[in-house]
Amino acid sequence: LQGQTSETQRRREGDTLHIQCPYPAWVGGSETKYWCHLTDERCPELVRTYYEHMRQSRDGKIKIKDDSTARTVSINMTDLKAENSGTYLCVHYSTGNVIKTISLNVYKAHVLAVFQGPSSTQPRSQATSLSDGNTFIVLSVVLLILLLLALLTSTALGVRLYRLLARTGNREAEDTSDRPEGTAQPGRRESSQDDRKGPAYINLNVQPHPSPEDPLYCNVEPSQAHRNSQHVEYTVIAFNQPPRNNRE
Question: Which part of the chain is the Immunoglobulin domain (predicted)?
Fold first, then answer.
């Protein structure tokens, strides 16, 4: 037997093998072709076909059909098992010439495939698309969480600043309401302008007719007393002698 074309197929247990065997011009469409499993230099026939007829094996797992218009023999093997591994031939019955040689390797489900055939292209693309979709969902959730955290932080800072400003405004209002008009609160020096105005208030007792020799007394609150002598301001008050009457 001499093969015309050959190919290698790898399948997992339970998969289906679909093979097409185009036959040359010298093979008639009405002539018989068969599918066989090569063992020990012999190739026992599994199923045969001719001229648009579809045939199947006794167990129904192998089907064969001859398409005389396309000049192609199609073979389907379903529910593959590890023992189905081996070399298969598509043969022209009259001459015994091999139309196509197939080397089939069926591996068990728990064994990792080293080579992925054309049938693995679609599952791989589906896995890639699922992975991309999961990545997009994860990134969207992370960005949403970060946005919510930023919003909560901004709200908390705004409320804290508002309370601080409200508390400061209330203190200033209380200080202003408790202070007599035109008089600074004793013991407090709020700004440089208050420093230039001098003490908040001074009680000065003067007799109706003071003399230069009479002492002057001034009451200062203890909270207004400066501990640093550099910040103490002094005032000298002098009294002129009243004019004497010429009669005296």
Answer: 6-107
d(CA 217, CA 163): 47
Cα separation, 176 vs 162, in Å, equals 21
Q: Indicate the pairing of strand 5-12 with strand 98-107.
A: parallel
In the 8-state DSSP scheme, what is residue 242? P
pLDDT in tens, 43-94: 999 999 887 788 888 888 999 999 988 999 999 999 999 999 999 999 998 8
What DSSP character marks residue 112? P
Q: Is the pLDDT of residue 160 over 80?
A: yes
Collapse the DSSP code of 176 into the 3-class scheme (helix H, G, I; strand E, B; otherwise coil) and give the result: helix
pLDDT in tens, 7-30: 999 999 999 999 999 998 888 888
Q: Which domain holds residue 65?
A: 7-104
Helix (H, G, I), strand (E, B) or coil at 145: helix
From the list 16, 19, 24, 75, the residue with the least C-alpha distance to 45 is: 75
Of residues 239, 231, 187, 236, the one with CA closest to residue 212: 239
Distance CA 90, CA 36 (A): 7
CA atoms of 65 and 50, how far apart (whole Å):
7
Judge whether 2 lies within some domain.
Answer: no
CA 198, 199, 202 angle in degrees (round to 5)? Answer: 125
CA distance 52 to 171: 103
**pLDDT of amino acid 233:** 60
Q: Where are the alpha helices (DSSP H) in 57-120?
A: none
Q: What is the CATH number of the domain that holds 13?
A: 2.60.40.10
